[in-house]
Amino acid sequence: MISAILSASDTESIRRAARTIKTGGLVAFPTETVYGLGCDAMNANAAAKVFEVKQRPQFDPLIVHIADLKQLEMVIASLPAVGQRLIDTFWPGPLTLVLPKQPAIPDLVTAGLSTVAVRMPNHPVAQTLIREAGTPIAAPSANPFGYVSPTTAQHVADGLGNRVDLILDDGPCPIGVESTIVSLVGSHPELLRPGSITIEQLSTVIGSIHRAAPVNEIPIAPGQLSRHYATRTPVTILASTGARPILNDDERAGLLIFSHARDSDNRFTAVEVLSITGDLREAARHLFAALRRLDSLGLDRIYAEPCQEEGLGVAIMDRLRRCATP
Ligand code: TXA
Ligand code: MG
Questions:
Q1: What pTM did the predictor assign?
Q2: 140 ligand 1 Cβ < 6 A
Q3: How many Cα atoms within 13 Å fall on the side-chain side of residue 143?
Q4: Of the residues 11, 105, 113, 137, which has the fewest C-beta atoms closer than 10 A?
Q5: Nearest to residue 119, comparing CAs of 65, 68, 41?
Q6: Is it the case that residue 136 has pLDDT exceeding 50?
Q7: CA 267 to centroid of ligand 2, rounded, Å
Q8: Cβ-Cβ contacts under 8 Å for 271 (sequence gap 6 or more)
Q9: What sign does the dihedral 274-281-195-203 (CA atoms) show?
Q10: Which phi-psi region, left, alpha or beta, contains residue 51 (left: φ > 0; alpha: ψ -120 to 50)?
Q11: Ligand 1: does its nearest atom lie under 6 Å from the Cβ of 41?
Q12: pLDDT tens-digit map of 4-32
């Protein structure tokens, strides 16, 4: 059995989803980055269900999504000047800020930290849902813990089946990689996760930014597990753009590339081209769906071409590397 998938273009669906949130249920909903698995951020029991459904370890806190600045006051205790500048420039949008939390946010949502991750999505369905629910919505990506994030309603249903009360469908997510996470609780801003807002964009507002090193196992700063966003099929990143591996005779391999396939690529069982023109926005939008398609074929291995680590390429390579971490 699968949860109801409702079209978000029907306003009654969004109202029903908002009632579900208000009464402690779980709703998967689209954002500009990936689909989220949402609950009332002020309701600890609802948050507990999110952890259970995702099989997410309780040391990994959730992002709280807000619709307006009034709700920001319900979530955070203070905002440094640099935070105000980032908000003025990038909200609503795919930037998550880590800030001191309000005591009313349940400990489960923040994994017992004194800080909270908060973002204001710019997706109209997410905004309407939060506004109709009248409460901030805590939402991790709507996938089983550690797996590739969902960029369609069907991806959510594939991963979480009937364990969600309902899924709001608004087609594929326009960006396709998760939000950028910046912590503002230390002496200087720190990049915890590269994402849709690029380092170049951030530096126009706050100058150069320090990048936190990824950690293994129990994260010191959460959200930095080195293996994450992973396929079941092992992934190998090729040495350079255009490089191709030597395959064993009986090896069934998939190939993920950023530009044209070559004639000789027909030795791969499947080839996914992320963007024929090498456009990183298009590649980001297609990345997770392409990984999922390759992962569904029972291949021995997926070979991925690297892309330039500039702009969105930083987030794309971050996700590919975590996928390739054994
Ligand atoms: O684009 C996105 O950010 C999507 C959509 C649904 O908004 N959400 C998302 O959530 O990617 P999730 O849970 O998959 O990743 C959130 C990350 C986690 O790795 C978590 O550890 C980190 O945010 N995080 C949450 N609260 C934190 C905090 N107080 N300090 C440091 N990291 C935090
Ligand atoms: Mg996630």
A1: 0.95
A2: yes
A3: 21
A4: 11
A5: 65
A6: yes
A7: 33
A8: 254, 255, 257, 261, 265
A9: positive
A10: alpha
A11: no
A12: 999 999 999 999 999 999 999 999 999 99
